[in-house]
């Protein structure tokens, strides 16, 4: 799946060439004749299973038995509605898909429940719906990976991952832990006009589908997009492609390509084939012997001496103590340099009037 264009992250449903997909559950009413008038709708995804299947045999008191039978009846009616919608959607030329709402519990049994319920054809999309990362409310991400493995074991291909922005970002940030979930084609749920700064990236460079309209942002008076023949709260999705390309990519049954793991690119001292052959020799480079404690103490002592000397005050020459030694005599003394005491006396004698700040006779002689 190639990277999407920038325009596909900002209200792409406004582009007439972008394909749309409707997804529904058992309580959404559908007028199929009206729905078929929207030629942009290229596919229909329906909810299949929800967690574990209800028990077929009911036990307990009257209340428990009645509730058990009601759940089973609902399950049977829901499955019949699912199968009817599949027949109608395909008859209208739409691609078909099914999703499983993941709950806490045995992930392998949930995968089996989903496949038995949906009975997917080779060109039917499968999706795993992960609503959050709280394992007390939804299937844990570790269990979700096991769900994906079981689906692949049974049908030989992978489902799409449906999830919201927060959960998708968490999976993207932990893609080295969730190596399967982070590589499933992403069915992204976010009800904002722009998602460029929110898109999780990671292994995902684009989305397979973006659910942009739902009950959260679509009502009687305002909605990003309305599909004929569906209620106001129906879920509507957009693809980053036109309808023809979407049909070619459907049902997104493969893992997305990712760059080679950087750990796998680190050279090893011996290939697997050579190691299995046996009698291999590995030569290591010489490593310098670590310094002894005494050597480390000597080095640190030397560096400390240099640091300490840098903070000492510089030595200055002592100013001569002479009677009548004023500023003029001081200037003459400084400019005399390394002269002998006799030369120093002559310099003082030749100095200007002590009250004057002009140059001394010595200065003029030097110039």
Roughly how many Å is the radius of gyration? 41 Å
CATH uppermost class of the largest domain: Alpha Beta
CATH fold name of the largest domain, please? TIM Barrel
Distance between the termini: 87 Å
Low-confidence stretches: 354-367
Q: Strand count, sense and closure of the main sheet? A: 8 strands, mixed, barrel
Query: What is the overall number of helices?
Result: 11
Please state the structural category.
Answer: alpha/beta
Shape: elongated
Sheet with most strands: strand arrangement: 1-2-3-4-5-6-7-8
Average pLDDT level:
84
Strand content: 5-15%
CATH superfamily of the largest domain: Glycosidases
What percent of residues adopt helix (DSSP H or I)? 25-40%
Number of strands: 8
How many domains is the backbone divided into? 2
CATH architectural label of the largest domain? Alpha-Beta Barrel
Query: What is the string of helix and strand elements?
Result: EHEHEHEHEHEEEHHHHHH
What do these coordinates show?
34% of the residues lie in helices and 13% in strands. With 367 residues, the chain is an alpha/beta fold. It has 2 domains: 6-249, Glycosidases (TIM Barrel), CATH 3.20.20.80; 327-366, no CATH class. Strands 1-2-3-4-5-6-7-8 form an 8-stranded mixed barrel, surrounded by 5 helices. The chain is elongated and about 125 Å long. 30% of the residues are buried.
In short:
It is built from 11 helices and 8 strands.
Task: Based on the model shown, name its key terms.
11 helices, elongated, 367 residues
Question: What is the secondary structure topology, with strand pairs?
Answer:
Blueprint: E1 20-24, H1 32-35, E2 41-50, H2 62-91, E3 95-101, H3 107-118, E4 125-130, H4 141-155, E5 160-164, H5 165-173, E6 186-189, E7 209-213, E8 235-238, H6 243-249, H7 272-277, H8 293-310, H9 327-336, H10 341-349, H11 361-366
Parallel strand pairs: 1-2, 2-3, 3-4, 4-5, 5-6, 6-7
Antiparallel strand pairs: 1-8, 7-8
Helix pairs in contact: 3-4, 9-10
